[in-house]
Amino acid sequence: MLEQKVPVALIGASGLVGQMYTRLLESHPYFDLVYAPPTADLEKEGFAELIASYAPIVFSALKDTKIATDVEMNIARAGSLVISNSACWREDPLVPLIIPEINLSHLNLLTLQRKHYGLKGKGGIITKPNCTLASFLLPLFPLHQKFGLKSAMMVSFQATSGMGKDFALNSNVL
């Protein structure tokens, strides 16, 4: 364990993903959750600078991609590293889409990202693929390393289950 835990903040703590982040951070050996502001504060003048003064790392569980795009970039510009759960960054070629066990070296993109977006200090944004893709790739990666997989196919019913729909295949699949 570290002598002193790294202070972190969490935005979007009231949603389901945010609540899970809160539980995980409560007893984390390396991170100390020091700030979880109410959603109403996120777009206030000076908010990004305030949160950056509390925490060099900010976990984001914001659901609304429009809000996430603006708020997360402002926090990154203020100097904090944002670890985003939002889909809004997944198509940006300068935002690393990280599965640590597979492509940690993609964090090197942060240097280009900081220059391109004019981010201060260690500010930046990293994100993760959606949970379905991550759970698919983790077991395939060692197989790829050992045998050189060329392709793989996957079918997911995530959209069905994520909407809370009845999972009966005959009524939900064309």
Q: Could you list some keywords that capture this structure?
A:
NAD binding, 41% helix, Rossmann fold, NAD(P)-bd_dom_sf, five-stranded parallel beta sheet, aspartate-semialdehyde dehydrogenase activity, Semialdehyde dehydrogenase NAD-binding domain-containing protein, 174 residues, globular, 2 domains, alpha/beta, Semialdehyde_DH_NAD-bd, 8 helices
Q: What is this structure's SSE topology?
A:
Blueprint: E1 6-11, H1 16-26, E2 31-35, H2 47-54, E3 57-60, H3 65-77, E4 81-84, H4 100-103, H5 109-117, E5 124-127, H6 131-147, H7 158-162, H8 169-172
Parallel strand pairs: 1-2, 1-3, 3-4, 4-5
Structural notes for this entry:
The protein has 174 residues and is of the alpha/beta class. The chain folds into 2 domains: 124 residues, NAD(P)-binding Rossmann-like Domain (Rossmann fold), CATH 3.40.50; 40 residues, no CATH class. Helices cover 41% and strands 13% of the residues. The protein is built from 8 helices and 5 strands. A 5-stranded parallel beta sheet has the order 2-1-3-4-5, sandwiched between helices. Strand 3, helix 3 and strand 4 form a beta-alpha-beta unit. The longest helix has 17 residues. The protein is globular, with a radius of gyration of 18 Å. The N and C termini lie far apart (51 Å). The model has no long low-confidence stretch (mean pLDDT 89).
Low-confidence stretches: none
Query: What does the largest sheet look like?
Result: 5 strands, parallel
In total, the number of strands is 5
Adjacency order of strands in the biggest sheet:
2-1-3-4-5
Task: Provide the number of structural domains.
Answer: 2
Q: So what's the CATH class of the largest domain?
A: Alpha Beta
N to C succession of SSEs: EHEHEHEHHEHHH
